[in-house]
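Translate structure to sequence.
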């Protein structure tokens, strides 16, 4: 005999909606999860109804409908000759997916998944931002671009902007430039315009430093942006 449940006492319209804390709790404790995301040694039990409704990437994974455009998004070089669609379709049937992100640590994947539940970044609101936060923002921006999360990219860009009032030491600033120019796409100006403005504003300091000179020599995008700034200044 089928089990039935009777709800009494309140009309449906009177039942309170699920709060932000409730949605966050689903991610935190994994209750009723029906899918698993893996990265490195970490795993996250997640809910398809949430991640698929907010991410075309995960919707494609769970649906098993892999097209050329989506295969490019996965960007897993060592699987490119092994039939990405077939491999990922098998993962979907097993209700899990392994994200092979050697360039990023698992904390970034955690933050990305948490964003899909809360639609917030950063999760702690707007406390005073420190320079090292900008490095995390730059890496998160690259993750958001890779997984086509435009809302997360926008919020990350806003958070990134809030760090420039802090006190920068040279090691942190060089690390930030490296992250911005090596991880973000060449044609994406979301963070690069802010970064090159900071470099050029303090060019009499930054450009004299050998580590920055070495980074410019290695990074074609940074070199081109500096030359563009020099051209604009000489043209005035």
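Result:
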């Amino acid at each position: 005999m089928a089990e039935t449940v009777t709800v009494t006492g309140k009309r449906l319209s009177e039942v309170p909606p699920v709060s932000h804390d409730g949605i966050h709790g689903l991610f935190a404790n994994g209750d009723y999860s029906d899918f698993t995301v893996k990265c490195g040694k970490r795993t996250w039990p997640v809910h398809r109804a949430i991640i698929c409704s907010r991410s075309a990437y995960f919707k494609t994974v769970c649906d098993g409908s892999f097209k050329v455009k989506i295969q490019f998004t996965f960007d897993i070089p060592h699987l490119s000759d092994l039939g990405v669609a077939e491999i990922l379709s098998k993962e979907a049937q097993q209700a899990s997916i392994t994200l092979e992100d050697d360039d990023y640590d698992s904390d970034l994947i955690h933050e990305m998944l948490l964003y899909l539940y809360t639609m917030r970044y950063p999760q702690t609101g707007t406390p005073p931002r420190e320079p090292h936060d900008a490095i995390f923002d730059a890496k998160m921006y690259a993750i958001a671009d890779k997984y086509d999360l435009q809302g997360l990219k926008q919020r990350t860009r806003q958070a990134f902007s809030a760090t420039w009032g802090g006190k920068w030491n040279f090691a942190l600033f060089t690390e930030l430039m490296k992250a911005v120019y090596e991880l973000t796409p060449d044609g994406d100006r979301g963070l690069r315009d802010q970064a090159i403005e900071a470099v050029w504003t303090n060019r009499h300091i930054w450009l004299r430093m050998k580590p920055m000179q070495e980074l410019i020599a290695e990074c074609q995008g940074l070199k081109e942006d500096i030359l563009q700034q020099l051209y604009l200044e000489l043209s005035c």
